[in-house]
């Protein structure tokens, strides 16, 4: 849950149906017409620096086009920031992919095309360069002469900032894809989430009526809860229920299965508020605990003096259960 964007994006666009919609939505029509959509796949590799993976998510999609493959290297921002040299970073990541191809295929003499895509959302909208040549400082009188020596490429920018969705043919997206991109655009902005969820009603209802509605609903609920903590989990569910309309029952089905996970997340919030940062090992224990254990820990967090005392009390419970077990068996025997 520390990187909720990563989970939702990779869930949505690792599925061909939704990935096809995204690629069609960002490609020029004359290019899209040449793509063999049944061959679209998500490549497993990431070419981004590990230190930046908390700030961005990258996806490499590919499909056959003619006798070769077309690649789309898509970067989705996880923070509402504008990196002035993002176009340079994209060039580095694309080059890393080409380097790997050359290494793996020693007889390769031609490189495949890569379309770089940046999905951005911020208060101001994207204001940095979208063409590589625009970040290379050249005296104007020498620009024409030096131009052949400067890399030339442009990024396909999808700007999801408030009031300015651009660079995207929304009609090409699946209903779930539309809702995912909208959810990304309002992440952390509770006011926009509350104001705009009504206009996403049709997309949500269509997504919940699809064959993969359950997994899609779980992915969306996890994401919205994680990115609207101030709004509160109960309010998020209420808003989703209202927007789901006739499909409201499916949101409740998802919530029933998701309730234990929500309880674990609420307990982590309580532990952090009471004891400060929760260590990774303790988080793992909480997230894997069953409903009964979570219920006990949720009571202990109110009274125990330390985090260890809250969680390690489970050992005391086990001992207590063993001591009382014979008595319970005797009681059942006497009743018989």
Structure description:
The structure is a single chain. With 336 residues, the protein is of the alpha/beta class. It folds into 2 domains: 4-185, no CATH class; 210-336, no CATH class. Helices cover 53% and strands 12% of the residues. The protein is built from 14 helices and 5 strands. The chain has helices at residues 4-13, 16-26, 29-32, 86-104, 143-146, 175-185, 190-196, 201-208, 213-227, 233-244, 248-275, 280-288, 291-300, 307-335, and strands at residues 35-43, 56-65, 68-77, 114-120, 156-159. The protein has a 5-stranded mixed beta sheet, sandwiched between helices. The longest helix is centred in the last third of the chain and has 29 residues, at 307-335. It starts with a helix and ends with a helix. The relative contact order is 0.08. Residues 318-336 have low confidence and may be disordered.
**What is Rg?**
25 Å
Mean pLDDT across the residues is 86
Give me the strand/helix succession: HHHEEEHEHEHHHHHHHHH
Helix content: 40-55%
Give the uncertain stretches in residue-range form.
318-336
Features of the shown structure:
5 strands, 14 helices, single chain, alpha/beta
How would you summarize this macromolecular structure in one to three sentences?
This protein is of the alpha/beta class and 336 residues long.
Could you give the topology of this structure?
Blueprint: H1 4-13, H2 16-26, H3 29-32, E1 35-43, E2 56-65, E3 68-77, H4 86-104, E4 114-120, H5 143-146, E5 156-159, H6 175-185, H7 190-196, H8 201-208, H9 213-227, H10 233-244, H11 248-275, H12 280-288, H13 291-300, H14 307-335
Parallel strand pairs: 3-4, 4-5
Antiparallel strand pairs: 1-2, 2-3
């Amino acid at each position: 849950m520390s990187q909720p964007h990563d989970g939702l994006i990779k869930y949505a666009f690792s599925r061909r149906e939704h990935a096809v919609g995204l690629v069609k939505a960002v490609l020029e029509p004359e290019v899209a017409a040449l793509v063999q959509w049944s061959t679209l796949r998500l490549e497993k590799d990431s070419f981004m620096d590990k230190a930046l993976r908390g700030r961005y998510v990258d996806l490499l999609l590919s499909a056959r086009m003619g006798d070769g493959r077309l690649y789309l290297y898509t970067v989705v921002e996880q923070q509402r920031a504008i990196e002035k040299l993002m176009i340079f970073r994209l060039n580095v990541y694309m080059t890393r992919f080409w380097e790997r191809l050359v290494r793996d295929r020693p007889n390769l003499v031609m490189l495949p095309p890569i379309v770089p895509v940046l999905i951005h959302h911020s208060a101001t909208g994207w204001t940095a360069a979208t063409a590589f040549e625009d970040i290379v400082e050249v005296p104007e009188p020498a620009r024409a002469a030096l131009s052949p020596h400067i890399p030339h490429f442009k990024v396909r920018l999808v700007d999801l900032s408030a009031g300015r969705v651009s660079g995207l043919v929304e009609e090409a997206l699946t209903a779930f894809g539309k809702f995912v991109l909208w959810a990304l655009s309002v992440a952390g902005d509770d006011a926009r989430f509350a104001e705009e969820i009504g206009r996403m009603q049709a997309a949500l209802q269509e997504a919940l009526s699809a064959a993969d509605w359950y997994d899609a609903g779980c992915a969306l609920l996890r994401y919205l809860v994680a990115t609207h903590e101030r709004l509160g989990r109960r309010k998020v569910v209420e808003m989703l229920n209202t927007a789901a309309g006739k499909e409201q029952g499916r949101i409740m089905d998802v919530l029933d299965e998701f309730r234990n996970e929500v309880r674990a997340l609420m307990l982590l919030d309580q532990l952090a508020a009471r004891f400060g940062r929760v260590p990774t090992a303790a988080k793992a224990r909480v997230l894997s605990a069953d409903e009964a254990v979570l219920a006990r820990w949720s009571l202990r967090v109110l009274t125990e003096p330390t985090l260890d005392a809250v969680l390690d009390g489970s050992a005391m419970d086990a001992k207590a259960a063993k001591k009382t077990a014979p008595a319970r068996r005797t009681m059942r025997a006497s009743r018989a």
